[in-house]
From TrEMBL:
<dbReference type="Pfam" id="PF13167">
    <property type="entry name" value="GTP-bdg_N"/>
</dbReference>
<dbReference type="InterPro" id="IPR016496">
    <property type="entry name" value="GTPase_HflX"/>
</dbReference>
<dbReference type="InterPro" id="IPR030394">
    <property type="entry name" value="G_HFLX_dom"/>
</dbReference>
<feature type="compositionally biased region" description="Basic and acidic residues">
    <location>
        <begin position="1"/>
        <end position="11"/>
    </location>
</feature>
<feature type="binding site">
    <location>
        <begin position="262"/>
        <end position="266"/>
    </location>
    <ligand>
        <name>GTP</name>
    </ligand>
</feature>
<dbReference type="InterPro" id="IPR027417">
    <property type="entry name" value="P-loop_NTPase"/>
</dbReference>
<dbReference type="GO" id="GO:0005737">
    <property type="term" value="C:cytoplasm"/>
</dbReference>
<dbReference type="GO" id="GO:0046872">
    <property type="term" value="F:metal ion binding"/>
</dbReference>
<feature type="coiled-coil region">
    <location>
        <begin position="190"/>
        <end position="217"/>
    </location>
</feature>
<feature type="binding site">
    <location>
        <begin position="284"/>
        <end position="287"/>
    </location>
    <ligand>
        <name>GTP</name>
    </ligand>
</feature>
<dbReference type="Pfam" id="PF19275">
    <property type="entry name" value="HflX_C"/>
</dbReference>
<dbReference type="InterPro" id="IPR045498">
    <property type="entry name" value="HflX_C"/>
</dbReference>
<dbReference type="Pfam" id="PF16360">
    <property type="entry name" value="GTP-bdg_M"/>
</dbReference>
<dbReference type="GO" id="GO:0003924">
    <property type="term" value="F:GTPase activity"/>
</dbReference>
<feature type="binding site">
    <location>
        <begin position="353"/>
        <end position="356"/>
    </location>
    <ligand>
        <name>GTP</name>
    </ligand>
</feature>
<feature type="domain" description="Hflx-type G">
    <location>
        <begin position="231"/>
        <end position="404"/>
    </location>
</feature>
<keyword id="KW-0547">Nucleotide-binding</keyword>
């Protein structure tokens, strides 16, 4: 979409022409990206200054979020806000300007890529004469579209109801449309927003009880896995970093992987055998995003516990994105909220994805800069082409099973049942069949595999 830039810093897209005689298509929307002139100094907890995102990057992400649920952004704008208004966030002149754009473009929805108070949302809806969603509401709407399992649906509904507690205002009946789920765009079609706060709270309590049952079930499954035991490796990262593509590359699965924000929501687990035979459980989790609502994190706690309980965390970054550093900071902040220290190099591996999109000069420079960092060099990969995947697998196996060791074992004729296991769990260097019927095998095996071999040989000898 072409964008124009006004003298006051507003970047806007030109409204598209949509004749009224055409068939009903995607919901027509106006996307507004407010940029506060005075940004917050830092986190409340650490007071660490947050990295500033470029206006273009914020604009592109907001448009991507809108298109992720099949909205048609007929007009987009980045607006500098020098003095946020308590009533509408934007100044009165801008509100009037956007009201005219909404009217001329026959837009049904206005997306404001910024948190809005209930009062601001209500006032903007009155002034713009259209339904208004802030960033939180839009993310919840996307999650509602993506949830496929009962657990995911429960989590989205709980987050939605918590969000709506302070927003029990009149619904836009002229936007009423029958659709499933508990989203916002459907209006009161199937789920009329309760006007009674008590009923709302009762529903929240009921959902929390159902999710507690889900959590207990997950705990049981996790306990069974620990009895096997297979180590769990969780892939985390900013949305659209390529987590599902990497998951598919490592597992041979066919999890949905698209160039779309929040293409997948529900977690997926698969068993994977690494090159030297080490079995792991690989977990693909929901993508993170900046300013992820705290009540949404709370609602998805059951899902994110897969990350908390993981033996190893792969932090996947889209290194080709200009805002990759800010995205990494957002992911690390959420991990910290979950009790995972992203700086713990024994538990967290930083992986740079999409290196195939970098030219050789940028790739070499980035890797050189990373090698000078306190966390050591990251693993650079392309989940699409497969470049660097072998190095990643080797590192994961080293973290899970220890370094490769040279080992020589003699297998007696009565122990030949172990030979097949050795071939599956080690790199055979040489094999000598002896005259007495035994076999001497030299191999490279991980530390854990060596311990298992010694244990199996002892059991055979004792038996």
């Amino acid at each position: 979409m072409a964008r124009e830039k006004d003298a006051d810093g507003t970047v806007r897209g030109k409204p598209a022409h949509h004749p009224g005689t055409e068939a009903k298509g995607p919901t027509r929307a106006v996307v507004i990206v407010p940029v506060l002139a005075r940004q917050p100094r830092g986190d409340d907890d650490t007071n660490r200054p947050r990295l500033t995102r470029s206006a273009d990057a914020r604009h592109d992400e907001a448009v991507g979020l809108a298109r992720a649920i099949n909205l048609d952004p007929i007009h987009t704008a980045v607006v500098t806000v020098n003095d946020p208004r308590p009533a509408t966030l934007l100044g009165s002149g801008k509100v009037e300007e956007f009201a005219e754009i909404v009217k001329e473009g026959h837009a049904e929805l206005v997306i404001v890529d910024h948190p809005l108070t209930p009062v601001q949302q209500r006032n903007l809806e009155k002034e713009l004469n259209a339904k208004v969603l802030d960033r939180t509401g839009l993310i919840l709407e996307i999650f509602g579209e993506r949830a496929r399992t009962k657990e995911g649906t429960l989590q989205v509904e709980l987050a939605h109801l918590n969000y709506q507690k302070g927003r029990l205002v009149r619904s836009w009946t002229h936007l009423e449309r029958q659709r499933g789920g508990a989203g916002f765009l459907g209006g009161p079609g199937e789920t009329q927003i309760e006007s009674d706060r008590r009923q709302l709270q009762e529903k929240i309590i009921k959902l929390k009880h159902e999710l507690e049952t889900v959590r207990r079930t997950r705990d049981l499954h996790r306990a069974k896995r620990k009895k096997v035991p297979f180590p769990v490796v969780a892939i985390v990262g900013y949305t659209n970093a390529g987590k599902s593509t990497l998951f598919n590359r490592l597992t041979g699965a066919d999890v949905l992987a698209q160039d779309m924000l929040f293409a997948t929501l529900d977690p997926t687990l698969r068993r994977v055998r690494l090159p030297h035979g080490t079995p792991i459980i690989l977990s693909d989790t929901v993508g993170f995003i900046s300013d992820l609502p705290t009540h949404l994190i709370a609602a998805f706690r059951a899902t994110l516990e897969e990350v908390v309980e993981a033996d190893l965390v792969i932090h996947l970054r889209d290194i080709s994105d200009p805002d990759t550093a800010a995205q990494a900071e957002d992911v690390e902040r959420i991990l910290a909220d979950l009790g995972v220290d992203a700086g713990d190099t024994k538990r967290v591996i930083e992986v740079w994805n999409k290196i195939d999109l970098l030219d050789e000069g940028n790739r070499s420079r980035l890797l050189a800069d990373a090698a000078d960092g306190s966390r050591g060099p990251p693993i650079a990969v392309s989940a699409i082409s497969g470049e660097g995947i072998d190095a990643l697998k080797a590192l994961v196996e080293t973290r899970m099973a220890g370094e490769l060791e040279d080992l020589t074992v003699t297998i007696e004729p009565a122990q030949f049942g172990l030979v097949d296991w050795l071939y599956r769990n080690g790199d055979i260097v040489s094999r000598t069949d002896n005259e007495d019927g035994s076999a001497t095998i030299s191999l490279k095996a991980t530390q854990s595999a060596r311990e298992e071999i010694e244990s199996r040989l002892r059991r055979k000898n004792n038996g």
